[in-house]
Amino acid sequence: MDRESKQQRVKRLERLCHERGLPVTMQRRTVFEMILDREDHPTADQIYDQTRKRIHTISRTTVYRILDTLVGLTLITKICHPGSAARFDPRTHQHDHLVCLHCETILDLKETRSSKVAWPDVSSYGFVIHDHHIHFRGLCANCIEKRGAEERTTQRPGGRHPRTPARATTRPIAKQKRRIPS
Ligand SMILES: [Zn+2]
Ligand SMILES: [Zn+2]
Question: 99 and 76, same structural domain?
Fold first, then answer.
């Protein structure tokens, strides 16, 4: 979460909406509050599912539109990683991500050292750089642990079921290994 409190962020939403002549609807406020409460970089569908529990009548399209508005107001950021659904982040300051290639978990990297990247001179491209994002890809602690548990299970004679039921690790280890570049 940015240094601003949740209440301050909601106040900022109200102020920005007023400035742009946008009504501060209950729906906009609810979607925004949902994102502020999450640290896991949810997808639009996850936010929709969560919002619908509070506002039963809200449509998927409305949630998508609200997300676009919030991104446009720079209240949240949209992060896109190749091959994955867009994710939404309440942290708008420059920060880097750790992306799990297996379960697609995205973690915020607290260390800021990696963000200090010298921007190249791209004037010859006619391009103007606004910002940059670094994502380090690999395996999260959960996936490493599950993989270890599965390997231990498959080594046990007759043991087919790992102790913790794994959602995404039911495919054979050999195949899984091939999917994950080292
Ligand atoms: Zn993972
Ligand atoms: Zn983030």
Answer: no
Neighbours of ion ligand 1 (CB under 5 A): 100, 102-103, 105, 140, 143
User: Residue 150 and residue 144: Cα distance in Å, rounded?
Assistant: 10
CA of 172 to the centre of ligand 2 (A): 32
Judgement on whether residues 73 and 102 belong to the same structural domain of the protein: no
> Tokens 């910002």 belong to which residue?
131
Q: Residue 65 is part of a domain; what is its CATH number?
A: 1.10.10.10
- Decide: 70 and 76 in contact? Cβ < 8 Å: yes
Q: Which domain holds residue 109?
A: 94-182
**pTM for the full predicted model:** 0.74
pLDDT tens digits, 19-69:
999 999 999 999 999 999 999 999 999 999 999 999 999 999 999 999 999
